[in-house]
Design goal:
Blueprint (H helix, E strand, L loop, with lengths): L13 H16 L3 H40 L9 H50 L2 H6 L2 H43 L1 H7 L2 H39 L1 H6 L3 H27 L1 H25 L5 H42 L21 E8 L7 E8 L4 E5 L6 H8 L7 E6 L2 E2 L5 H5 L2 E4 L8 E2 H6 L7 H10 L3 H6 L7 E2 L8 H15 L3 E5 L7 H15 L3 E5 L3 H4 L4 E6 L2 E6 L1 H7 L2 H8 L11
Parallel strand pairs: 3-10, 3-11, 6-9, 9-10
Antiparallel strand pairs: 1-2, 1-4, 4-5, 7-8, 11-12
Helix pairs in contact: 1-11, 2-3, 2-5, 2-11, 3-5, 5-6, 5-7, 5-11, 7-9, 7-10, 7-11, 9-11, 10-11, 15-17, 20-21
Membrane topology: Multi-pass membrane protein
Subcellular location: Cell membrane
Pfam families: ABC_membrane, ABC_tran
Length: 609
């Protein structure tokens, strides 16, 4: 999409924001310009017939009035000219048919174009989300992002479906109707068109004050969705700790703010229509009185006065519609602002200077004077260590010490602010991110499985793998026997919440998926924390097999998991305070030695640095 994004989105306000949103939207409509142009052309045809109708209807009134007046005066041979009346009626029928057909064609083509464009916007949003850096999701609630993809797109879709045709029709109505009014009578036209500037003044007065309210409404809606997602995600914990009242109070607070924001926005917007109606009635009264004077002195036909009143209502109708649609229009622009601001977010840079061949990578990992911090806060000041190819590195330390952050830097979820991280001597910032991540398998404490068969979930690790390779990976992860006990075996369907298998079994499946990928480097982030002692033993046996010849990083709380590591890193407050083998660290009688003899979990123990 070719949109100028050099301007800071926070600097765009008012008309600048509206113009930017429309320009961005046109990029999604442009691929369907054929259907769009045809639909809009039919809008023009419909509004031409709409503008001609009052004049033709007025001719019928004028003819009947003229014939009736002649009959009342006793003019010889005077009669109602039915042939003329039927001719006018036939013309009206043709006009009505053209108007109806053109409106039908407009509805078909504009609906198709708009829904195709909305489909493209959803696809673009999904593609954008896949390219966003991890830090974006650290700063934005999942429910807010979900609201943007669902509610905001739906708001935009509904608004465009309702307003695009009607707003365009209103503009064309103004042009054609005003032209017809000046064609009929200049003085009355000057009086009638006062409705437009007066209505615009009223509309602008309310719109400028209500747009901020609609922005607040959409933001609050995003917050409400985030709260709902959070509550349902932690539903079991809420019930367990009897925090239902607290959860309801939180929901009621956000919901009440949503109610107030929606009321203020809708109320401010709803004031436009009655104000425009008042202006219309005043203009009609003025035209009626003045027009009657012109009819009496013979400078205006009665049918044309009738047409004039119809034209005033034709102007009032789109003005009233626009005022009624103003809430949808403003909601649409608020939604577009959120959608296109998300699309403007900075993406992860994928291009790298060095091409990686996974089969040639040995797996030597070096942290060379690494400096890193979130925002302006420095977490790591000078991290140095080297992981030899095929060796196991264990990372221990209290919760929040920076263990997972080390691995996030290695995977380039974040980039270092100083120093360098190297694989086989190559700075990972010179590597393509996708190629870099092909070297890794990652097993997290929080398991992720998708709705589908067990086979599909394991096969996800390497889509080119054969069935026998999938089964082999499951056997190495010691989960094959469990799978065979299930109905359907590898075809057993996992539900959306993965609630039909246990947490430990889910962990084993994710490990099988990681094994299938056949990576050069393996990361286990507290992967054994969700399994019992028996399963942990099975898991360790499997991991010893898969780690053979591969560099591995293990983040664990249990000393039994890390004591056989080739290198142990003790992390605290982001820095490595000790490193060495199990025996070397015990001999130092430092932090690790205290941990080992304390008999407590590594996660709960707070090292003294």
């Amino acid at each position: 999409m070719s949109v100028d994004r050099t301007e800071n989105k926070n600097d765009r306000k008012g008309l600048a924001q509206v113009g930017y949103c429309l320009k961005y939207l046109m990029n999604f409509l442009r691929p369907y310009k054929g259907g769009l142009v045809l639909g809009l052309l039919m809008v023009v045809v419909a509004n031409i017939t709409f503008a001609v109708m009052p004049v033709v209807e007025g001719e019928m009134t004028t003819q009947l009035f003229s014939d009736g007046e002649a009959i009342l005066k006793g003019v010889e041979g005077a009669h109602v000219h039915f042939d003329v009346i039927f001719g006018i009626m036939g013309t009206l029928v043709i006009i009505y048919i053209i108007k109806t057909v053109s409106q039908l064609i407009t509805a078909v083509f504009l609906t198709r174009v708009l829904q195709q464009a909305m489909c493209d916007i959803r696809n673009a949003l999904q593609k954008k989300i896949q390219r966003l850096p991890v830090r974006y999701f650290d700063d934005h609630a999942f429910g807010d992002v979900l609201s943007c993809v669902t509610n905001d797109v739906d708001t935009l879709s509904n608004a465009l479906q309702e307003t695009l045709q009607r707003v365009l029709a209103a503009i064309l109505t103004f042009i054609f109707v005003i032209g017809m009014m000046f064609y009929i009578h200049t003085i009355l036209a000057c009086i009638a068109i006062l409705i437009i500037p007066l209505s615009l003044i009223v509309t602008r007065f309310f719109v400028t004050r209500s747009q901020k309210l609609f922005d607040t409404q959409q933001e609050t809606l995003g917050e409400l969705n985030g709260t709902i997602t959070e509550m349902y995600g932690g539903f079991n914990e809420i019930i367990l700790y009897n925090r239902q009242k607290m959860a309801l109070d939180k929901f009621h607070d956000v919901n009440d703010r949503m109610r107030k924001a929606s009321f203020r926005a809708q109320f401010a917007s709803s004031l436009i229509s009655p104000c425009i109606s008042l202006i219309t009635y005043l203009i009609i009264g003025s035209v009626a009185v003045t027009g009657c004077l012109f009819v009496m002195n013979g400078t205006l036909l009665l049918g044309n006065l009738q047409a004039f009143v119809r034209y005033i209502w034709q102007i009032n109708d789109p003005l009233s519609q626009i005022s009624q649609l103003s809430s949808q229009v403003q909601s649409a622009f608020a939604a577009m602002g959120r959608i296109f601001n998300l699309m403007d977010e900075e993406e992860e840079v994928q291009n790298g200077k060095v091409e990686i061949r996974p089969d040639k990578v040995r797996g030597e990992v070096t942290f060379d004077h690494v400096v890193f911090g979130y925002d302006d806060e420095t977490l790591m000041r000078d991290v140095n260590f080297q992981a030899k190819p095929g060796k196991m590195v264990a990372i221990v330390g209290p919760t929040g010490a920076g263990k997972t952050t080390l691995m996030n830097l290695l995977l380039r979820f974040y980039d270092v602010k100083g120093g360098a991280i190297k694989i086989d001597g190559i700075d990972i910032r010179d590597m393509n991110r996708e190629e870099l991540r092909q070297l890794f398998s990652l097993v997290l404490q929080d398991t992720w499985l998708f709705k589908g068969s067990i086979y599909d979930n394991i096969h996800y690790g390497r889509l080119t793998a054969r069935k026998d390779e999938v089964i082999s990976a499951a056997k190495m992860a010691n989960v094959h026997h469990f799978i065979k006990t299930l109905t359907g075996g590898y075809n057993f369907e996992i539900n959306e919440e993965s609630s039909n298998i246990s947490q430990g079994e889910k962990q084993l499946l994710t490990i099988a998926r990681a094994i299938l990928k056949d990576p050069r480097i393996i990361i286990l982030d507290e992967a054994t924390s969700s399994v019992d002692t028996r399963l942990e033993k099975m898991l360790q046996d499997a991991m010893h097999k898969v780690m053979d010849g591969r560099t591995s990083f293990v983040i664990a709380h249990r000393l039994s998991t890390v004591r056989n590591a080739d290198l142990i890193l003790v992390v605290d407050h982001g820095d490595i305070v000790e490193q060495g083998t199990h025996e070397e660290l015990l001999a130092k009688k430092g932090v690790y030695e205290k941990l080992y003899h304390s008999g407590t979990s590594l996660a709960n123990h707070q090292p003294v640095c």
